[in-house]
Sequence to fold (524 residues):
Amino acid sequence: MSEPGIEVSGGAGGIAVALDALDVAAPALRAVAAALADSAADLALVLADPALVAAALVAPGRTARTGAALLAVAGPSGLLGTSLHLRVLAGSVAAAAELYRAGESGARQAVEGVDRTAGLVLGVAVPTVVLPVSAATVLGAAALRTRPSPVWLGAYVGSVIGVVRELPSRAGPRVGRVLGEHPWVLEHSVAGAEGLVVGLGLGSPPLGLYLADRADRAGLRSPPRTQAEAVAGVPAAGGGHVPDEAGLEGEGRAHPVSTAGRRPPRGVSDLVAADGPVSGGDHVRVTGIPLTDGRYAWVVDVPGTQTFSPRPGTNPWDQTSNQLLEAHERTLTMTAVTAALSDARARTGRGAKGVADPVLLGGHSQGGITAAALAADPVFRAQHPGLSHVVTTGAPIGGVPVPEGVSVLSVEHVQDLVPALDGARNPDRAAWVTVRRDLRGDLRGASDAAPTATGAHSARLYESTGALVDERMVTDPSLLRWREGAGDFLDAGRVDAQHGDPQPAAGARPVVVDYEVRRVRRDG
Fold:
């Protein structure tokens, strides 16, 4: 078994920060070059000074040596030459940064073009090739399995139903293994969703007309030009039935939790653990950690998907919320989390408008999407202006417009298909750190999480990955900088060898509240 490891990108040690440093370095080099050139000019003027010319008549040898020394300092081998070298270096640095950005942009556009083409081909193939071949295969398998019977048609129909029912159990594991070994297949397929929609219309004109009509009714562009527009068309295609939350509202019920024996989070493994100190399981858990200056640090744990029903039911952590979140629409779960944090803050007297207590949002899978969507939501930021951190595991958030001022730590498994469902890679920027772990040959004895499309999404396995992140924290510059910024949420559990444990302000007490959230109809 190979040695376990993780790959860290973005953050303080990322490429974007390095390019930003080059952008700063280039004008700084030009400024130094200009200063050296000015100094060279000043020294050159000394050679023409009347006093030096007069001295040449009295002591020509010494004056000549002085002039030569001045020329050596100011000339091509001195200040002037150094100035020219710095100007050339400044130009090279600026050009290198621009060339890298241009190359990255060109490569991205090329990949996007391939994704759209692949999606187009797949879209055409589904109604013209895939569905007919699949239907013929099912019908043929049913014919082979049908036993002679006086009522042949009924036996045949029963065999067809049996083959269809067996497909998930037979084909599912194989598909999971293939996609787990080749996760890029789904990533690029999803990234070309706009091409897929166009292809479906070309392969089946009636379906294309239906999709165009639904998009027009929803005020969407048809055909879609981007992956995000294609995803936004899914609710419209549902015809107001699925996925849709119209006529529904969220209802929350608070359940205060005893803080006796509980400790605050101490690292990433605590923040992502299914039974960690901040995890509320299938509830929204809000944990308030009192700080030494009278403020509270708030950690909000958002649950993941709990039901895969395509119709919006009483449990809002479902496929309806998943689809709406991927379409960048506001969900009832987002409203519920916003209200839950406001309620918990009010219980400590920290709920007044304008109080900017630090807030960290975290979650696995759908919980992570919700956390990132809230960070990008102006309504949430207006009510909780202290939002500073988002931590996600197994969540497709690369396309969520999280503001630059919010620090993001995104943990993903290479074989986990869920982070690829938005078809977008996480941005490389100073405040966004992405940790990826390749599970092949690195399961650490986790029997419930083989490196397949489904096993790699295990929350338990992400907890072990969180422990790897904590181990790497002291050596990786990006993770170290992230850890320093998250001190309000994690340092309460650290022991300071000189001063002992940090003590909260007098009278402040930790608070933990679980919120049960459900959908109800507005008319009751």
